[in-house]
Amino acid sequence: MRFARRYLAQRLVASVVTLLGVSIIVFLMVRVLPGDPARVIAGLLASEEDVQRIRVELGLEQPLHVQYGIFFTRLLQGDLGTSARTSQPVLVELQPRLAATLKLALTSAALAALLGIAAGTLAATRPYSRFDYLLSVSTLFGVSMPVYWLGLMLIIVFAVQLNWLPAAGSEDSGSIVLPTLTLAAFSVALIARMTRASVLEVLGQDYVRTARAKGLPEAAVVVRHALKNALIPIITVVGLQFGTLLGGAVLTESVFGWPGMGLLLVDSIFSRDYAMVQGIVLVFSALFILTNLIVDLLYAVIDPRIHYG
Amino acid sequence: MFVATVGILTMLGAAGGAAGAATTFRGAVGVDPDTLDPVQMTTTTVANMVDYVVETLTFIDQEGKIRPGLAESWSMSSDGKQYTLKLRKGVTFHDGTAFDAKAVKWNFDRLADSSVRVPIRAPYPIEKTDILDASTVKITLKRPSAPLILALSWTTSGIVSPASAVKHGNEYKNIVHPVGTGPYVFKERRKGESLTVTKYDKYWGKKPFYDTVVFRIVPEAATRESLLLAGQVDLIVLPPVADLPALNRNSAVKVLLAPSDRTIFVAFNTQKAPFTDPRVRQALNYAVDKQAIIKNVLFGAADPMDAPTAPSLFGYCKQGAYEFNPAKAKQLLAEASVKPGTRVSFLHPTGRYTQDKEVSQAIAGFLREVGLEASLQTMDWPSYIRTITTPLDKGNTTELHLLGWAPAFLDSSQQMLQFLTSYHPPGGLATSFYRDPKVDEMIVAADSEAKPDKRKELYCQISRKVWSEAPWIFLYVQRYPIVHSAKIRDISSIPNEKFYAVYARPR
Fold first, then answer.
1. 10 Å Cβ neighbour count for B75?
2. Does any CB of chain B come closer than 8 Å to the CB of residue A11?
3. Fewer CB near the last or first residue (10 Å), C or N of chain A?
């Protein structure tokens, strides 16, 4: 346990360093983009004086390192700055958006893990059966389908034709269904494929044969022995997929008008809202890093053979 | 705490909105408001929603005519620098305070206050506002401006309750919860999701039908269309333009191709050879088949330009047409000694105006027909703006670029800026660098001309000159597609890309 604690500390330090790097990259990235953000914010009809005033307000007159210094000092105090687009603190704007995105990503991750692991395990226990073929065809479909197209198709079928579900927004009950399906589609397919391969491999191992030889029921063999041991690579994929889901939220949220961080990111990029873009990318990065950390720690829980130190 | 509560509500997804009570009107728009503060607004779509709550001293009606609003009448001094406005009596703000001269003065002082961010301040050169009596104000301008009355119809000059500026999270410099005098009261805003207003029982004017109006924010055009087709909203703006023919055939919905004032044109850099020669510029006007572009690329959602301004502007003066005539174009190019195969650079934005990329490609095709090789280049909007507004002495090497221009209020003065020398970058956005001292003189004169007939005549003269000198390829005036459920009536539009659905009702 002592080792685990040291490992945890190391990982935390590494995470902070990574975040620091992200903050520098994000800071530079939004500033080397061509175009005058002050003009974009002010609008085409604004006078030159007003544009100049916004430039000063945003601190765009300062040299880069000074701008970063200000940005970083504030960051340490938990201040992500003020959105140029809405004149509100970035943190205040982000909170409800983060909640909406997390809700969507977590639901999708849960659905993807559940469906993916179940389908993959079933396929592995019946290799080359009709179900297995069906799964490989549909997962191929799932992996290669553009999120955007899938979203619009689901809307046309379930909202316009059948009128079962809301086409957009997050206010109605049921409005989370279509975005969740859209977002989860890719991950379900990937997790199912991964699970199938992993379980299939484990099923061929000696201890499984031993378990069967002991006369254990097949279901117990698969779930208690095979699946448990096959779970490590699957957890990695699920963890990584969660990061992908956060990224995928950008497209899904646009299609469904889901008021999360992805939608806000798109709005903010188009309006050159520096502070907001930085804030969103930092939060996304932090979530991604946190997910990786959790995945690594889960290994130790599932497989006691893994020691960190 | 408030934000956290809204966040949790958003997370939980308050149930029941979809079905909607019988007296809820639901619209879907593509833009999430950056601000609801009238003076800070720049986006017509946002202004359109705020107009439900906040009223202006004057209104523009569906025909584009000026009408009394919170001001019942007005007069202008002969030098065009002073305006006296008689205010409507018996009007109260939603917070119960009285609308009067004091309130107007407070709002106009704020509009003129340089410490407040006002992106569209130029049309309001207010020096000071004086209270003559409880319902009369006198506005003194820094310079004469005949179109002020029209400018007072634009949302930037909307009147909010001064008492409300320190309540509901509002600050003097930033109003987040507008309290006006309009037919609807601001109720709730869910960022990225919706804006809700409810009927104001003490409204001074005609009372609307619906108790509640909800605008949903849906950035994706195809999704907005789906919402309407699924019956989940009653009105949308800007469906995918390629779907217009199908929507027109669908009896469940009605398509309004509303006239707008957004002109789309290709600006020449008139200070760069061979575009210094008016014959070359005229030639290219003859070379492009605008009708074909409107029919095949815009699915009918535009009208060809027949003057330098849109017909909805005061001072519009029809000039005829540059008919599609490639032979004449070739002849003019030959006269100007432009050799076939000459390469020209052609910049265009993408996703900014309806089908802008596709239109640019079509134009390049027409130019090729008359012997000009246009090399197309696209950029993201901020880079694009920076490139075309580079001053001439800072190395602007553009030749042709596609641009749109939509005056915030319907007056030719707002369009003619494009032909004013002092409006060349960096002083403004006249990106064709058109330069004519006579035109400059007439534009300035028209700005301070008190007599409407005389002003109109001045704009006619400017239009004639600009049309023949052709600093642009005059393309078309965009139409603004609004689609609504066939079960609802009394929906129309105002010609500055606003829908007018305040008095919508079930059929």
1. 11
2. no
3. N
CB contact under 8 A, B382 and A50: no
List the 236-295 stretch of A: residues with Cβ below 8 A of B. 254-257, 259-260, 263-264, 266-267, 270-272
- Compute the distance between CA of residue A179 and CA of residue A181 in angstroms, rounded to an integer: 5
Residue of B13, B28, B191 with shortest CB distance to A171: B13
Secondary structure letter of residue B418 according to DSSP: G
Which residue is listed with tokens 């809301």?
A166
**A45/B380 CB distance under 8 A:** no
**Full-model pTM:** 0.85
Nearest to B216 by CA among A261, A182, A101, A167: A167
CA distance A32 to chain B (A): 11
**Mean pLDDT of the B375-392 span:** 86
Q: Are strands B372-379 and B342-349 parallel, antiparallel or unpaired?
A: parallel
Q: What is the CA radius of gyration of chain B?
A: 24
List, in order, residues 6 or more apart from B167 with CB less than 8 Å away.
Answer: B95, B177, B179
All residue ranges of chain A with pLDDT < 70 are 1-4, 34-35, 40-41, 43-47, 303-309
Per the CB < 8 Å rule, is B17 touching A172?
yes
Residue A119 has a CB neighbour count (10 Å cut-off) of 23
Alpha-carbon distance of B23 to B212, in angstroms, equals 7
Q: Which of B428, B424, B460, B479 is nearest to B263 (CA)?
A: B479
Mutation target vs B (from A87, A95, A276; most B CBs, 10 A cutoff): A87
Q: B198-214, pLDDT tens digit by residue?
A: 999 999 999 999 999 99
Q: Give the pLDDT of residue A308.
A: 56
Tokens of B213: 């109006």
On whether the CB atoms of residues B302 and B476 are closer than 8 A, the answer is: yes
Q: Do A167 and B226 touch (CB under 8 A)?
A: yes
- Nearest CA among A5, A178, A108 for reference residue B223: A178
CA of residue B50 relative to chain centroid, distance: 15
Tens of pLDDT, residue by residue over A210-251, are 888 888 888 888 877 778 778 888 888 888 888 778 877 888
Residue type present at position B433: F
> Phi-psi region for residue A277, left (φ > 0), alpha (ψ -120 to 50) or beta?
alpha
Number of CB atoms found within 10 A of residue A145's CB: 16
Q: What is the DSSP letter of B97?
A: P
Size of interface A-B (CB pairs under 8 A): 179
φ/ψ of A15, rounded to 5, equals -65, -40
Interface of B with A in 53-72 (CB under 8 A): none
Contact of A77 with chain B, judged by CB distance below 8 Å, is answered with no
Closest CA to B430 of B260, B264, B262, B269: B269
Report the gap between the CA of A279 and the closest CA in chain B (Å).
17
List the single residue in B with minimal CA-CA distance to A156. Answer: B226
Tell me if A264 and B426 make a contact (CB, 8 A cut-off): no
Å between B375 CA and nearest CA of chain A: 21
Q: Indicate yes or no: CB of B220 within 8 angstroms of CB of A254.
A: yes
Give the Cα separation of B9 and A96 in Å (integer): 9
Q: Under an 8 A CB cutoff, do A260 and B190 touch?
A: no
B:388-417 residues touching chain A, CB 8 A cutoff: 389, 408
Q: Give residue A45's Cα distance to chain centre.
A: 39
Helices B2-12 and A90-125: crossing angle in degrees, nearest 10, is 20
Cβ–Cβ of A42/B11 closer than 8 Å?
no
Pairing of strands B472-485, B235-237: antiparallel
B432: tokens are 């064709």
**Tell me: the pLDDT tens digits for B172-197?**
999 999 999 999 999 999 988 999 99
